[in-house]
Write a structure and sequence with these properties.
The radius of gyration is 23 Å and the shape is globular. It has a 5-stranded parallel sheet with strand order 3-2-1-4-5. It has a two-stranded antiparallel ribbon with strand order 6-7. It starts with a strand and ends in an 11-residue tail after the last helix. It is built from 15 helices and 7 strands. It has 3 domains: 162 residues, Rossmann fold (3-Layer(aba) Sandwich), CATH 3.40.50.620; 69 residues, no CATH class; 111 residues, no CATH class. Helix 6 packs across helix 9. InterPro entries: Rossmann-like_a/b/a_fold.
């Protein structure tokens, strides 16, 4: 049965690095690359997508509401929402401009969606509600989505999984250790993630082979494949690896990650963007909004124009209030203090290292 391999290019570092990684490591894996065009991306983001397109060969651009008279898909859906801005509690932007278009692009085909969540991130990624789309996370030690893991480790499947391992694993101490873990029931003290990590600690590749055999008994897309090369990969990639892949490939690091120095009251700090996404992303920190105001004043003004009737991008603060001189001064001093604290602890001081992974919509970066 035909199963499509699909990778969403968001314009951020992780999805870009994942595309490069898979092309280098699995050149025979036929992957469809796509980008959800919101019409509200930074020029720096568009430049990265163009460079990636040259490196990969082709990236299909998906654009919602193509026949709308509004200038961008966002403005089309904003009008349909009655001017109600998206927020962490109501992420209609992600659904309307990205997820719906992606699922329409896949249709009813079986598809494996490759998602660039790194091995040093503690979060789950996008899992489609459509049964014909399965997410896989190549950068992590556990490449499988939470729904697959929960089914694989469920008590109802215990005997089946033990039998799979029994056939895969040669006799020896490792097999004894595996059977001890497999036979141990899920409890409040020995919960799913603890059992998962115990199995991965013994042998990642063996675990992947066992999951693959289990998936063959299900209707998951990977289960319809004759083979799946990622099950023999036990590499774990972290942020440092991502930047190295981007630089070494020649694609380069998105320029919005470049630290720009500023000075306040004789103290110096730096700012940039911590991630890709629409220029008005509500997950931005206030210092990132200041970066936008000072580096792209036209886009900041456009973002301001969307605020009205109590709808603001930042909770309890309008963009007009944020750029008052004293407010800018305070926001910059706050980030300088945080950067100095991290420096004293020998930690990273860039915005991506300060809070790049704290506030994120996983679905937005498929």
């Amino acid at each position: 049965m035909k199963v499509r391999n699909i990778l969403g290019i968001s314009g951020g570092k992780d999805s870009a690095a994942l595309a490069i990684y898979l092309k280098q490591k699995y050149p025979n894996l036929k992957i469809e690359y796509y980008n959800s065009d919101t019409g509200c991306e930074l020029a720096e983001t568009e430049l990265l997508i163009d460079r990636l397109s040259a490196y990969l060969g082709n990236i299909k651009r998906l654009r919602a509401a193509e026949d709308s008279p509004e200038p961008t898909p966002f403005e089309h859906f904003l009008k349909a929402a009655g001017g109600f801005l998206p927020s962490p509690q109501a992420r209609w932007c992600t659904k309307k401009m990205k997820l719906d278009e992606f699922e329409r692009y896949v249709g009813d085909d079986y598809a494996v969606s490759y998602v660039g969540i790194r091995g040093d991130e503690d979060r789950d990624g996008y899992v489609s509600s459509k049964p014909n789309i399965q997410s896989v996370f190549p950068f992590r030690r556990n490449i499988w989505s939470v729904d697959v893991i929960n089914k694989f480790l469920h008590k109802e499947n215990q005997e089946q999984i033990i039998d799979i391992y029994d056939k895969l694993c040669p006799e020896g101490l490792m097999k004894e250790d595996l059977m001890d873990v497999l036979k141990k029931p899920i409890t409040k003290q020995f919960y799913y993630s603890k059992k998962l990590n115990a199995l991965l600690d013994i042998d990642v590749k063996m675990f992947n082979h066992a999951v693959f055999e289990y998936l063959k008994t299900t209707d998951y897309p990977v289960g319809h494949l004759d083979s799946f090369p990622l099950i023999d990969n036990d590499e774990v990639l972290v942020k440092e690896d991502i930047f190295r892949l981007l630089r070494d490939s020649g694609v380069g690091v998105p320029s919005y990650y470049e630290e720009i120095p500023f000075e306040v009251d004789g103290k110096t700090g730096t700012y940039c963007r911590s991630r890709s996404g629409c220029y008005f992303c509500f997950f931005q920190q206030k210092i990132e909004w200041i970066w936008l105001y000072e580096q792209h004043p036209d886009l900041y003004e456009k973002a301001m124009s969307f605020e009205k009737d109590g709808y603001t991008w930042i909770q309890n603060e309008s963009l007009a209030d944020l750029i008052k001189p004293e407010r800018i001064r305070q926001v910059k001093l706050d980030i300088i203090k945080r950067q100095e604290t991290n420096k004293n602890k020998n930690k990273g001081t860039s915005l991506a290292e300060l809070f790049g992974d704290e506030y994120v919509c996983a679905n937005c970066f498929i």
